[in-house]
Amino acid sequence: MTKINRRRLFGLGAAGVAAVGTGAYATHALLEGPPPAAAASTSDPVPFYGEHQAGIVTPAQDRLHFVSFDVTTKKRAELVDMLQEWTVAAARMTQGKDAGTFGAVGGAIEAPPDDTGEALGLPPSGLTITIGFGPSLFDGRFGLGAKRPAALADLPKFPAEDLLADISGGDICVQACAHDPQIAVHAIRNLARIGFGKVSVRWSQLGFGRTSSTSRAQSTARNLMGFKDGTNNLKLEDAALLRQQLWAAPGDGPAWMDGGSYMVTRKIRMNIETWDRTSLSEQQQIFGRDKGEGAPLGGKHEFDEPDFAAKGADGTPTIAVDAHVRLAHPSSHGGARLLRRGYNYVDGSDGLGRLDAGLFFIAYQRDPRKQFVPIQMELGRTDSLNEYIKHVSSGLFACPPGLRDAGDYWGRTLFA
């Protein structure tokens, strides 16, 4: 069994001591599963400890910095030690503290600071930091092969994708979401600094303008094509559906994933210039929704249930058979749903005057084999939207459950 390096506990300072003192409450929370806590305002902190990791059902923040790491150390003990250090730093940063005990300016002048400093004076801004482990981490280097969940099966080759290997996959991912982009970047930068010599950045992605709402208290956001996105997906208020569709349950797989979830990422480049020259009528037929209100065609309001049997005066379906909303709807996939946390991205231009822009799609679910895979297979085959998009990056990660208290750390149950 791997034990936590107790030296790491001191990095939490008073916050860590307080968390240890509430261990009984944390254990109760694990058993009872209270509703996820959220920041009271966009400047306030989000609790770090709990039954599930923050950053999944947490009301989606406006900014994202996502990174995928390759593990470079060959020593299991070094990897565990780094995960302990990461956990302490993450717990501190999400509460608005520096990444390390002495911060950006409090240590010895001759030594590198414990924090990079760009978040000095800034509030926590609702920062959440969520970790996941990729299939490649279970390749035998660290004796984890027998603990690889069946649900972490490699994604199949989908139609209409052209993946780039250098921006796909990875051993460990970290998702940092915040309402201030500097806070999200600060979090990733410091974890990469702490992990130097043990991990290296494989790829990363900045995102802005959330394209999904994870709470019914949030308005539905728009993607760069101008349409409301993810209307019918899971929300944090859907308690029964979350148990059924989002959280891994005992018996699903190895016990270390009980209460966790599986994350799929897809970088979807949009042919922005071609889309912008397409008529409004065709755009709406492609999505199957009204662009202004977001209502399904034939309906009046965004959350009206789509009527897939309705036909126009000419006898053709009001919502086309290859419309995105029809193909992605739960009724087309045995009720399968996803919890989405997507973000818009613009990565400059491609040198030919075309924007390198689109959607960085993030979806959480209980089992990708039964949820994301069948949905995306159908979309890849017949979605009329495929003329305007291309999937260029893909990732799959097992996100373990939340941490009990300051004596816990990311990956403890996996490496036990």
TrEMBL record:
Its main location: other. Binds 1 heme b (iron(II)-protoporphyrin IX) group non-covalently per subunit. The keyword Oxidoreductase applies. Pfam families: Dyp_perox_C, Dyp_perox_N. Its cofactor is heme b. Residues 1-26 form the signal peptide. SUPFAM superfamilies: Dimeric alpha+beta barrel. Its EC number is 1.11.1.-. It is found in: Cell envelope. Keywords: Heme, Iron, Lyase, Metal-binding, Oxidoreductase, Peroxidase, Signal. It catalyses: heme b + 2 H(+) = protoporphyrin IX + Fe(2+). Residues 53-208 form the Dyp-type peroxidase N-terminal domain. Residues 220-402 form the Dyp-type peroxidase C-terminal domain. The keyword Ion transport does not apply. Belongs to the DyP-type peroxidase family. Involved in the recovery of exogenous heme iron. Extracts iron from heme while preserving the protoporphyrin ring intact. This is Deferrochelatase.
